[in-house]
Amino acid sequence: MEEELYVVGKRVPRTDSIYKVTGAAEYTADIKLPNMLIAKVLRSPYPHAKIVNIDISKAKRVPGVKAVITGKDGYGVKWGVFKYTQDHMMLPIDKVRYVGEDIAACAAIDEETAQEAIELIKVDYEPLEPVFDPEEAMKDGAPLIHEGYPRNINIHVHIEVGDVDKAFKEAHYVREDKFRAQGEAYAMLEPYACVAYYKNGYLDLWMPNAGPHVRAKALSNLLKIPLNRIRVRHVFIGGAFGGRSEVAPADFIVSLLSIKTERPVKLVMSREENAISSRQVHDVVARIKTGVKKDGTIVARDYEVIYDGGAYSSTGPIAASVPFYVYEECYRMANVRYHGYRVYTNKGIRGMYGCHGRAFLAGCEAQLDLIAKELGLDPIEIRLKNGLRAGEETATGSKIISCGLQETIEEATKKVDFKNKWKKATRLKGVGMGCVAIMCGFPMGFRSGSSCSVKFNDDGQATIITAIVDNGQGNESMAIQIASEVLGIPMEDINIINADTEATSLDPGAYSQAATFVGANAVKRACEDARRQIAEIAREKLSCEIKDIVIKERMVFSRKNPENKIPISWIVREAFLRGKPIIGVGSYFPNIDLKREWVSKPFGQMAGSFSYGTSVAELTVDENTGKIKVHKFIAAHDCGRPINPMAVEGQLEGGIMQAGIAAIMEGNIWHNGFLMNPDLLEYKIPTAKDMPDIETVLVTTMDPEGPFGAKEGGLTIRMSAYSAIASAFYNATGRLFKELPLTPDKVLELLQTEEG
Amino acid sequence: MILPKLDYKKAKSLEEAIEYFEKSNGEAAYFAGGTDLIPRIKLRLRTPSLVIDLKGIEEMVGIKKTDEMYVIGANTTIFELKNSEIIRENLPTLYEACAQTSCEVLQMRGTIGGNILQDTRCLFYNKSLTWRRAKGFCYKMGGNVCHATGGKNVCYANYSSDLATALLSLGSKLVIVGKDGQRKCDFEEILTGKPEKPFNLRQGEIVKEIIIPGGKRQGAFEKIRIRGSIDYPLINGAFTMDSKGGKLVVGAIGSKPCVYSVETIEEERVKILSETVFNDLKPVNNTVVSPVYRKKMGKVIAIKLIEKTKKGA
Amino acid sequence: MRNRKISFTVNNEKVTLHVRPYETLLETLRERLLLTGAKEACGLGSCGACTVIVNRKPVRSCLILTLEVEDAIIETIEGLKKNGNLHPLQKAFMEKGAVQCGFCTPGMIMTAKSLLDRNSRPNRSEIIEAISSNLCRCTGYKKIIEAVEDVCSKE
C-alpha cells in the first residue's frame, strides 16, 4: 500500500509567489549597487558587412563615460555550445552577420550619457551580400556567412532507421506535404538584462538564466578568467521558455565593461533590443512524407526539416533535432529517415524554444488526421495504434519506463465527445488533437546529473542547497515541497539557496526539462540522507526500530507509539552536540547513454524518462473574415505524478496560450533582415480575451524513477497545442495548413483552395 | 526607455495652452492622454521641445446632449464615452468604436480628441530611431522612399483611429480653437489624405470639442484585428443611418477613411456599394496581414455593417 | 533642463522630489523611490507591466510624465499590504496559482484592484475585459481570472 503523502500532490501556494505579489521580488533590472554604471550597446545596421574601422574616440570623451569597448577588447574567443559549433565572438571583429548584432558598448554614469556616447561611435562598414531565406542560403553560390560551413549548413542531423524506401514501396497509402511556420518570439515579459561586478579579480553576475553553471563556464572561456572567479548569482527571472539557456552577448559585454572600470555595470535591453538582439525562434520548413498500411499502421516516414538558424549556431545541434525526437518518443517508427538542416542566414540568433518546431509537429499531426480519414479511421484510433507504450523502445533506442499517452488521448478526447464531433464536423467547425512526448533531460555529459545538500539549523528548520533554477515555472517551490515531504517539516520551515554557482553544485538547468526528474530527485535523495541521520538519533531516544520512525509536523515518533513525540529540533541539537550536525547530501544521475551525440551518434538512451501529452482543440472558422475562434481547449499531460497540481496546470494553461492560441496569432515578420514586429504591439501575445474555455487533465503514471513518481511538468502541451489547432482546422475546413500562424489572411487564402 | 529632453507645461485654459504654443516657436506638442504621443516621442518620431498638457482645461471635458446635437469635449476619455448612457443609448456606432479601442486601461487615459488626432501608423515607421536609421529614413521620416512599396516620395501609412471612423459616419463637426479664435468645420475637412501629414490644422490649433448631429442614430461599427484587445485596426468600418439615409465609412487603410452616402439599403444596392468599397481601398503591405486581405475585408465589413444596422433598427 | 519640484502621495506617504520634466512616473518610482514592483516590459504602453493606480485610475506609468501627478494619490503594488496583511487579491493570486514568473504580476494585480475599486462584484466577462489590458506570457490567464473571481465571491 502506498504511503500517505502530506505535501506532495497538494495544491500549495508557491513559495516564491509572496515575493511576486508584493513587488519584493528582485529581477535583474531592479538591482541597484553603489557606484553602478549603465551600459548601452551599439548595434549593426547591416545584415551582412565587413567591419572596416570603429572609431570610439569621440564617445570616450563624453563626460560621464567610463569605458568604451569593441571586439578588440575581447579575447578573440568564439563561443559555441559544442566544440564543433564555436562560431560566435559576442563582439565581432571581422564582420557583422545580422541587423542588431553587438558592435561596441559603453558604460557611463547614467542611461542618457551612455546613449549619447553610443551615438558618437563611428563605424565604417563594407556591406556584403546578405542571404535571408534558408533554402536560398543552401544553394550553391549563396553568400557564405561563416567560413567552413559550405552551403551555410550549420548543422545536418541525419537519422535513418529500418529500410525506409522499401517500406514506402510496400505502403498502402503515401502522403507528402510541405509545411512552414514563422519563428516565434519568446516574448518573456522581462527584457534581457545583466549586472556584472568585477572586483579584486572576481566577477559577480546577475542575469535571467536557465542554468547558472553553464553560463559561468561560457563566460570563463570567453573572458579567460578561471571558473572559480566567476559567480552567477540567484535572481528572480521573468520567464525563459528556452530563450535564456545560453550565454548572451550582453553577459560578455557587461562583464568586460565591469572588468575595465572595476565598477558594477548594468545593461537593460529595451523590448526592441530584446527581440532583435537576444534570441529568437527558428522559422521552419518541413517536408513530411508518411506511408501507412491499410489498418493505419505507419510503416514509413521521411522527413526533411530546414531550420532558419540566423547568424550563429547557438544551440544548433539540439535545435535541429528536438522536434524529431519529441515525435519519435511518442510514436512507433520502424522505418524512418530524418534530415534536419540548421542553416545560417543573416538574421538574429535563433535558440531553443519551449514550443520549438511547430511546422514539423503540427504538420505531422494534421497530416495524420488526413491519413486517418483516407483510411476510414479517426484521429484517436490512428494515434492509439501507432503510439508507444511503456516497455517499448523508440526508433533511436530510448527505452520507455512509463507512458501515459493512451490515457492522455482518452481523457482529453472524452471531454469533448471527440469521436462524434470529428466525424460530424459541420462546415467550418472542427475538433482536432495533437500528441507528443518530452524527454526529461538529455545527454549533457557530466552536467546531466544534479546534486543537493540540506542542512538543519538549530531550531529544526532546514536549508536546501541546489542548482535548480526557477524561470517562473515554480521549480524552487517544487524542490521545497519535496524536501518538506521527506523531512516532515512544513514548507515554511525550509529555505532554499539555489541557482548560485558559488553555493551550489552542477545541474542540467531548467532548459533541459530535467528540473523535476533530475534536480528534484537529487533534492529528495539529500533529504532522505538527512532524514536517515535524524532517524538514527531518534531510534535511540524512542527505543524503536529505524523503519518505524515517522517525522511529521516537526515531530519525530515511532509509528508503534505515536503518543511519544520528540520535536525535530531536539534531535537536531543532539546532532550538533555529538559533533555530527544533520547535513544530508544526495545526487541523481539519470540513465542516459553518454555516448549519444546529436550529430555523430544520434542513437542510445536519450533521457531517464519521458512525459506524454495530448492537446485537443475545438474551433470555428469565420468564412467571411477568415478569423479562427478557439472555443475549447483540453490539455492532458502525463507528468508521472504532479508534485503541485496547481503548478502543473499552470504550465499546461500557459502552453495552450503560447503554442495553441499562438498558432493563430504569433509569428515574427521579416523584411530584408529587419524584424518588423520587435515589440509587444505588433507581435501578438494573446490577451485574456483571446483565450478559450480551458480544461486540464493530469494523468498519473507513477514513474518508477522520478521523485515520488514525477516527470517533467507540462512541456508536452507547449509542443502539441499547435498540432491540435492545425488538426482542428483540417477537420473544420478539409484543408491542411500551409504556414503558421493561421492569421485570417492565410485562412481566407486556404479556404479558396481545393480541399485535401 | 527614456524620453529625450523636453519641457512640460500644464495649461489651465485654452488661451494659456495656445499662448504656451506660440512661445515655443512651433516646437511644442499638445498633450492629452499621451497614449499616442508619448510612445512616438520615445521612439523619436516626434521631438517636441515642450509638451503642453491639456488635461487641466475643464471646458474640454464632458458630454452634453441637446435635441440638435451632442457636444463632446475633446478631453473626454474613451472610457467615459463608453460608459456614458447618452452615448450607449443614442450613438451605438460610437459606443462600439470606443469599446473596441485598445484596452480598458488605455481607454481610461486616451481621449477622444487625442484619438482622432493620432498620427498615421506603418509597420516600417512606428519603430525606434535605431531601427529606422538602420533601415534608412522613409518618406514620412524625411527620406524619399516608401519601404512598404518601394515607391518614391509616397507614403501609405494608415490612420488607425476607430473613433474617427465612427465619428465620420455620424457626420461630426469639430470646434477648433487657435490664436485667431474659434472655427467650426466638418471633421472630414481636416483630413488631408496625405499620410505623411494627415491633418489640416493650422499651427497651434486645438480641437476643443466634437459635435455630433442630434437624435437617436442607428448604426454599427466593425473592426478587424488579430487580438481581442490592445490592437489597432487592420481595417475598420462604421455605418450610421437615420431618416435621411445613411453614411458608410471604411477606415484604417491609408490616411483618410472612405466615406459613402447610402440612400437605400436594399440588398442589390448594398452589393454594388460593397464592390465600390473594394475597388476604392488601396492597402499596401504595411500591417501584419496581407493587403489583399484588408481590401477584401472592406467589402465584408460594408455588408456586415448594413445588415447589422438593419437588424438593430 | 532643470529638475522641477513636485509633491504627491505614494502608498499613503507624501513625497516631494525634484524630477526631470521628461521623466516618466515609472522612472521616478523605480529609480528615485526604489519602488521596483512596477516593471518596464515594453516601455510603450502595450503590455501593462508598469501599471499603477493614480487617483483611483489604473495607468501605464511608462506613458505618464511625473510632473503630471502633482498632488495625486498614487498606489503601487508595494502599498497593497496593510498592517502586515496581504490584500485579498495578493492572497488570491498566491492561493489560486495565478503567479508564475511574476513579471506581469504587480501590473496585473493593480489593474484588477482598480476594477474592484470601481465595481466590487464584476462578472467574469467584466474581469476578462479589465485584465485584457495586461499581457501575461506564462499563465494563459485562467488562474488570474479565477483569482479575481475568488476575491469577488468572498467580498
Q: What features would you describe in this structure?
A:
The complex is a heterotrimer of chains A (756), B (313) and C (155). Chain A is an alpha+beta fold and 756 residues long. Chain A folds into 3 domains: 17-24 and 444-588, Aldehyde oxidase/xanthine dehydrogenase, molybdopterin binding domain (Aldehyde Oxidoreductase, domain 4), CATH 3.30.365.10; 31-128 and 193-268, Aldehyde Oxidoreductase, domain 3, CATH 3.90.1170; 280-443 and 595-751, Aldehyde oxidase/xanthine dehydrogenase, molybdopterin binding domain (Aldehyde Oxidoreductase, domain 4, 2-Layer Sandwich). Chain A is 28% helix and 26% strand. Chain A contains 21 helices and 31 strands. In chain A, a hairpin with a 6-residue loop joins strand 26 and strand 27 (628-638). The longest helix of chain A is centred in the C-terminal third of the chain and has 28 residues, at 515-542. Chain A is globular. The model of chain A has no long low-confidence stretch (mean pLDDT 97). Chain B starts with 6 loop residues before the first strand and ends with a helix. Chain B is α+β, with helices and mostly antiparallel strands and 313 residues long. In chain B, strands 4-5-8-6-7 form a 5-stranded antiparallel β-sheet, with no helix packed on it. Chain B has a 4-stranded antiparallel β-sheet with strand order 9-10-11-12, with helices on both faces. In chain B, strands 1-3-2 form a 3-stranded parallel β-sheet, with helices on one face. Chain B folds into 2 domains: 1-58, 2-Layer Sandwich (Uridine Diphospho-n-acetylenolpyruvylglucosamine Reductase, domain 2); 61-117 and 157-312, Uridine Diphospho-n-acetylenolpyruvylglucosamine Reductase, domain 3, CATH 3.30.465.10. Chain B is globular. Chain C folds into 2 domains: 4-79, Beta-grasp domain (Ubiquitin-like (UB roll), Roll), CATH 3.10.20; 88-154, [2Fe-2S]-binding domain (DNA polymerase, domain 1), CATH 1.10.150.120. In chain C, 33% of the residues lie in helices and 16% in strands. Chain C contains 5 helices and 5 strands, in the order ββαβββαααα. A 5-stranded mixed β-sheet of chain C has the order 2-1-5-3-4, with helices on one face. In chain C, strand 3 and strand 4 form a beta hairpin. The radius of gyration of chain C is 15 Å and the shape is globular. The mean pLDDT of chain C is 97. Chains in contact: A-B, A-C, B-C. Chains A and C meet through helix 1 and helix 18 of A and helix 2, helix 3, helix 4 and helix 5 of C.
